[in-house]
Every structure is written in structure tokens, then in C-alpha cells.
Design a protein that fits this description.
- The protein is built from 18 helices and 25 strands.
- The chain is an alpha+beta fold and 592 residues long.
- The strands form 6 sheets. An 8-stranded mixed sheet has the order 7-10-11-25-24-23-20-13, sandwiched between helices. The chain has a 5-stranded mixed beta barrel with strand order 1-2-3-5-4.
């Protein structure tokens, strides 16, 4: 018999009754019934109930072990009586009568209990993450993550992609988030950077003559945590393709995303292919966001013209000053009590807004604080613009276009939640396309890249030279699912002359571009294919599939919100000897 186990704790069935077995695992739970002691023994594969009779050697050993001790149990498999069968466990029809018990590792008193679904402070969970991961939900999430990555790899290879590994130690990038810097021992005063993404390397792979690249790539960014963003590091499905248009990239990515989500949907539906293509400006108008949650059926409308010159002076004056009015329909809200509208109005004020005016449309007419200030044609115009029926209501947001769009998007989500009209158990995908190439930086009075500086402008060099920068669109796209941006991508700018002109508009002299992006720019001068790609986030994909609200629930050993690893106590000071080897002196910040 094997030293530790003949079977796993999830393996035994009725067919094994009578067989002598040996199991090893963690003491999940103990129940002392006087003459009998029951122990649920857990390993990676499941749980098996073991039972020891009072007075036996096995009973005496089990009586003294704490929960989460690691033990080995030897004995025969017996059938449970009908009234004791546990239908919740695959092994629930049998148990092991413990004849021998060996303690492999005794556990001390637990700081975080494993049995049960109690919630504990995040700091405690992360400090003892190895215990947290023994809990069933977390354990399943990490196994799901592994299965998702394996599925993605299979699908990518089947589509003709080849997996490569790009460098981890590289040069600092001036764009995007802050770099993590690594000092060089051999080159005093100089630093490597951990890659924010393999962006330049994967483009160089295309220049090198390979056709379809992919990688489950680690990326490192020194940025603040959010519920959908882990500080420090994350993983993405990084891919790039040569001789492709935007639609070719979509055609390659959609089968992978659709297939993976269908495979692990667990009864949930996945939006059919092809995924909708929504231009950026349309998304901002209709949904108030460039990552719309399409499970919510509400579509925002522009009703500015119906308030121009109207009797509702606040909006009328704002429109004359160039501001806009956005309308957020509320289907069926006319049946809601006044408190429903007051609650949303209070929410808007808590968000720093003056309020959330509304109109209610009923068969007998209209009501609400705005309705009495509008004549019948204007009320009908708003109704038609929003597609409203009797029994519906509509809320309004007024302000400068960007701010109005953003808050209207927040109001759309809030109204949808309050009315509970969003689709359930479905993954709704879409592509956001036609992003602006530039955005105006009011503080610095200059044009900035609005998205990825390496994207190809629509219209090429001619557009850069002849159009107003604010009108230039890029071959830039995002893939979004249920309001979560899974990835950005683009058709790349592969021509040096176009790249230099694009950066010139953003305030970079040619010499600066040459020094900062010389490796890639120089490669483009020796024959570069048109190419494009994208990089969906693995962590966010698994977060959606696991139906978890926080990304840390699907990462094996995440940091806390202050980018600290509480379990390994990182970051931490290093010795003076290490600093001398790296030619570094630490200068603590001045105390305020």
C-alpha cells in the first residue's frame, strides 16, 4: 500500500465498499458523537468522511488533532446507512472506518478558520492566504483560472498562433502607467524596467517575419488598485497578427472569447457572434461609457434641442451656452412611488450633482418638476426621442458634453439597478471602435494621445497633416463584456514617417521619438508588415466567469490595495551590502 494514499478524498464510491484504502489530507471538520468520532478529510479533489469508534487507537489520535492538521487514515470503505447519506458530496454514500491514523503535520490554532463561509478582514485573509486558498470557493476559482488558461492556449494554437516569450527585463517606457524599475549592478546608475505590456516586443516579432504570435504574458504596472485591477502585476492573453485589418483581428479573437465563455458559462448565455461594433462617440452618447454594460436595456438620448428656448430656464440657458441635455429613460417607473424619484434625486446630489429632474408620462398626461415648464410639442418630442410609452418616466442630466455623458452613464446604471431590468445570467460582449486619436489637454494647452500612441490613424499621413487633431480617429478598439473592459487593441502604426508625425502633433520632437522608441522605429525602417493585435486580461476574464466582484478573488497570491504582499512581507528594506552592489543610496522622504 502506498505510504500516503491509495485514493484521493474525492474518489471513493459504492463500488469501493469493503476495500482497504489509505487517504491523506487536511482535517476539515470534526464531530464528536460520544461513541463515534466523525472527521471530514479534505484534499484537492474533495471530501471523504472518516469514522473512529471510541476506545480505538484511531479515536485517541483523532481526538487530539486540531482542524487543518494533515493526517493519513487507513481502513476499509463502508456503506453509509440510508439516513446518513450526504447527497451534497460525491463521496456521500460511503465512509472510511479508521483503523490507523498517522499525523503528518499538526496544525496550530487557526487565525482564519477554513470550514464555513464566514467573511474575514481582507488584510487577515491576505496575510494567511495559504489558509484562505483552502476554502472551497477560492480553491475553485484558482482551478477555474488554470482551466481557462489551458482552454485559451488550445484555442489559440488551433487558430495557427505560435506562443513566444518576450523579455521581462526591458527599457522604461514613457507612456502609460508608472514602471517598476530594476537597478543594474553592472551598469551603475542605469535601470531596467519590468514590462507594462509586451507591446514593442510583439510588434518586433511581426517585423521579424513571424505571422501569428500569442503569449499568456505577465505585465507590471505601478498603479493603484481597483476592484477590477490588481496593483503590481497581472496577466493577459497577448496576441499580434501580420497583414491584417481590424476585422481580421476581430475574426480571430471572437471565437476564442466566445468559446471560452461558453465552455465555462455554467448555464449562463453568451451573446452570439459577431459581437456588436459600437463607435466610441455612439457609446458615449447612448451609454455614457466606453465600456457599456449591454445587459441594461436603457439607451440615453440627446434632447438638448427640445430644451433650447424652452420655459425650463436652467436647461434653456445651459444649451445656449453650448451645454447638452441627456435623457435617461426609466421604463415602467410611472408606477413607482414618489420616494423612488426622491431617492434617485438624493443619490445625484450625493454624487456632486444639482439633482436629477424627471418627467413621468401617463395616459392622463405628464407630471414631474420639469413637465410643467414645457409645452406639449416639446414633451412629445422628448417622448419620441426616448421611445417612451405611457407608464414610463425619464430623468435628465445637463452640463458640458463630457461631464454630462459620464454622469448620464452613471445614472443609466443606477436607474437600471433600481428598476431591476438588467438581463440575468448572460455575458454581453461588444467592440468599441473608432476611438479619437487625440484629446485636448486643457491644463497644458496641447494635444495628447487619447489611447494608444502606437495605433494607426485612420486616413494615415494625409489625415495627420490635413485634419484637425480632434477629428482624427484611430484604428483602436476595446472588447467589453458586461461593463468590464477586457482589453484594448489596435492596428499598429508601422511606418516611421506616420509615427514621427503622429508624435509631433502630441508635442514630441523627432529626436525624442528616436531616443525613446529607437528600437522599434529603427526596425520599421527595414520593412515592417501592416500588423495589429489585442491583449484581453486573464484576471478579468476569470473574474467574470467566477462571478466575483473583486479581482483579488481569482488571483493566487494577490497584493493588498497598498501594493503590499502581507504574506511574504514585500516590499521590504534590503541590506546596505545589497545597496552598495547596486550603487544605490536610499533617501527617505522628508517628514511633513
Amino acid at each position: 500500500m502506498h505510504a500516503y494514499r491509495t485514493h484521493t478524498c474525492g474518489q471513493l464510491r459504492n463500488a469501493d465498499v469493503g476495500a482497504p484504502v489509505r487517504l491523506s489530507g487536511w482535517v476539515h471538520r470534526k464531530r464528536d458523537h460520544g461513541n463515534l468520532l466523525f472527521v471530514d478529510l479534505r484534499d484537492h479533489y474533495g471530501i471523504t468522511q472518516c469514522v473512529a469508534e471510541s476506545g480505538s487507537a484511531a479515536f485517541r489520535v483523532l481526538e487530539g488533532v486540531r482542524a487543518e492538521s494533515v493526517i493519513t487514515v487507513t481502513g476499509p470503505v463502508v456503506r453509509r446507512t440510508p439516513e446518513t447519506v450526504n447527497a451534497q458530496l460525491p463521496t456521500g454514500e460511503v465512509e472510511v472506518r479508521a483503523e490507523e491514523v498517522a499525523v503528518q503535520s499538526a496544525a496550530e490554532e487557526l487565525p482564519v478558520p477554513v470550514f464555513g463561509e464566514q467573511e474575514y478582514p481582507e488584510e487577515l485573509r491576505l496575510k494567511y492566504r495559504f489558509l484562505d486558498l483552502r476554502r472551497d470557493r477560492l480553491h475553485r476559482n484558482i482551478v477555474l483560472r488554470s482551466s481557462v488558461i489551458a482552454s485559451i492556449r488550445r484555442r489559440m494554437v488551433s487558430l495557427g498562433f505560435t506562443e513566444f516569450q518576450t523579455p521581462i527585463l526591458t527599457a522604461s517606457s514613457p507612456e502609460g502607467a508608472r514602471d517598476f524599475l530594476v537597478p543594474s549592478r553592472l551598469h551603475p546608475g542605469q535601470f531596467y524596467a519590468l514590462p507594462q505590456a509586451p507591446q514593442q516586443f510583439k510588434q518586433l516579432v511581426m517585423v521579424s517575419g513571424f505571422d501569428r504570435y500569442f503569449q499568456i504574458a505577465p505585465c507590471f504596472r505601478d498603479e493603484d488598485a481597483r476592484k477590477d485591477r490588481s496593483p503590481g502585476e497581472f496577466y493577459q492573453l497577448d496576441l499580434e497578427m501580420s497583414f491584417v485589418t481590424q476585422e481580421d483581428v476581430f475574426a480571430a479573437v471572437e471565437p476564442v472569447m466566445h468559446g471560452v465563455f461558453e465552455e465555462f458559462a455554467d448555464g449562463r448565455r453568451v451573446s452570439p457572434r459577431p459581437f456588436p461594433r459600437i463607435p466610441y462617440r455612439e457609446a458615449m452618447l447612448k451609454y455614457g461609457s466606453d465600456k457599456p454594460d449591454l445587459r441594461n436595456p436603457i439607451v440615453i438620448a440627446d434632447v438638448s434641442e427640445w430644451f433650447r428656448g424652452s420655459g425650463f430656464g436652467i436647461f434653456a440657458r445651459a444649451v445656449e451656452q453650448g451645454q447638452v441635455v441627456r435623457a435617461i429613460p426609466a421604463p415602467g417607473a410611472a408606477a413607482r412611488p414618489r420616494s423612488f424619484f426622491d431617492k434617485l434625486n438624493d443619490w445625484a446630489r450625493a454624487e456632486g450633482q444639482p439633482g436629477l429632474g424627471y418627467i413621468v408620462y401617463e395616459a392622463a398626461g405628464t407630471k414631474g418638476p420639469i413637465a410643467k415648464n414645457l409645452d406639449a410639442p416639446r414633451l412629445q418630442g422628448i417622448r419620441d426621442a426616448c421611445g417612451l410609452a405611457d407608464g414610463d418616466a425619464v430623468f435628465f442630466v445637463c452640463g458640458k458634453e463630457d461631464r454630462a455623458a459620464k454622469f448620464a452613464g452613471q445614472a443609466r446604471l443606477r436607474v437600471g439597478e433600481e428598476l431591476d431590468i438588467g438581463e440575468k445570467d448572460v455575458f454581453r460582449f461588444c467592440w468599441i471602435v473608432d476611438f479619437p486619436m487625440y484629446e485636448w489637454n486643457e491644463d497644458e494647452k496641447k494635444w495628447d494621445f487619447s489611447h494608444n500612441p502606437f495605433s494607426m490613424p485612420q486616413g494615415g499621413l494625409e489625415a495627420l497633416r490635413e485634419r484637425d487633431p480632434g477629428e482624427i480617429l484611430a484604428y483602436q478598439y476595446d472588447i467589453v463584456c458586461n461593463g468590464v473592459e477586457l482589453s484594448s487593441g489596435g492596428i499598429r502604426n508601422h511606418r516611421p514617417d506616420i509615427m514621427i508625425e503622429a508624435f509631433r502633433i502630441a508635442g514630441y520632437e523627432q529626436s525624442v521619438v528616436e531616443s525613446r522608441f529607437g528600437g522599434m522605429l529603427n526596425a520599421f525602417r527595414y520593412g515592417a508588415p501592416p500588423h495589429g493585435g489585442i491583449a484581453p486580461g486573464i484576471d478579468r476574464i476569470v473574474m467574470l466567469l467566477a462571478n466575483e466582484p473583486n479581482i483579488r478573488e481569482v488571483i493566487l497570491f494577490p497584493m493588498n490595495q497598498q501594493a503590499q504582499d502581507l504574506m511574504m512581507q514585500a516590499p521590504a528594506p534590503v541590506s546596505e551590502r545589497q545597496l552598495r552592489e547596486l550603487h544605490i543610496r536610499v533617501v527617505p522622504p522628508e517628514k511633513k
